[in-house]
Design goal:
The protein has nine helices and three strands, in the order H-E-E-H-E-H-H-H-H-H-H-H. The chain is mainly alpha-helical. The chain folds into two domains: 76 residues, Methane Monooxygenase Hydroxylase, Chain G, domain 1 (Up-down Bundle), CATH 1.20.58.2050; 105 residues, Methane Monooxygenase Hydroxylase, Chain G, domain 1 (Up-down Bundle), CATH 1.20.58.2050. The protein has a three-stranded antiparallel beta sheet.
Length: 212
């Protein structure tokens, strides 16, 4: 009998974790771009109508999955150039700076933080501003998300959760689970309070680093 599938957490840095279903889905998100040279045998893969054979001509506009864009991107050879999705551009960064809590992140990009961190792989002069905006957005929205997870117990939270990016949804669920576990313990329905998996995993990584 095979063991039950245990979810694997996503990578939260510049590299994806390809054992994570969330990261596999995130890497399928597309980037606008342009072919800086002829791309042979890629027209069919990218859903392009090739004029000659299966090659994509130089100068063609593209919609490239993140995983392929990272593979093709080479700052020295200039195979492709990648443009920023609109939610990471200056106009939207201004909106986030004004009030990040009003943005429906799931509608604009369900993997806003993880996808944005992957954009830092590409040579873009706006990378520092993108990274700073993501950090400030996370800090601004985090407190409200956790407050809501603690104050909306046994209530319909579907409208609230619908506006969150996938990482924020995980945090919201962790907050509600922590509250539920605590209330069960208070009522004598649980024998002990256990550390969350996030804390346990952090501790394991820390001890591994110390051993190395």
């Amino acid at each position: 009998m095979s063991d039950a599938y245990l979810p694997v957490g996503p990578g939260l840095g510049l590299e994806e974790n390809f054992l994570s279903l969330d990261d596999i889905l995130m890497s399928q998100e597309k980037l606008p771009g342009r072919a800086e040279s002829t791309l042979p045998r890629l027209a069919f893969a990218l859903g392009q109508e090739a004029g000659t054979g299966d090659s994509i001509p130089e100068g063609s506009k593209l919609e490239i999955p993140l995983w392929l864009a990272k593979g093709l991107h080479d700052s020295k050879r200039r195979t492709i150039s990648v443009e920023l999705p609109k939610i990471y551009k200056e106009a939207w960064r201004t909106v986030f700076s004004a009030d990040a809590n009003v943005v429906d992140l799931h509608k604009m990009g369900p993997y806003y933080y993880r996808f944005g961190s992957q954009l830092l792989n590409f040579d873009n002069p706006e990378n520092p501003e993108i990274a700073q905006t993501m950090l400030e957005t996370f800090i601004s929205r985090f407190r409200r998300i956790m407050d809501s997870s603690q104050n909306a117990y046994n209530e319909d939270t579907s409208a609230l959760v619908a506006r969150l990016d996938e990482l924020e949804r995980v945090l919201f669920q962790a907050g509600q689970k922590g509250l539920n576990d605590f209330q069960c313990w208070e009522k004598g329905q649980a024998s002990q309070i256990t550390a969350s998996s996030l804390v346990q995993n952090y501790g394991k990584r820390k001890f591994t680093d110390m051993d190395g």
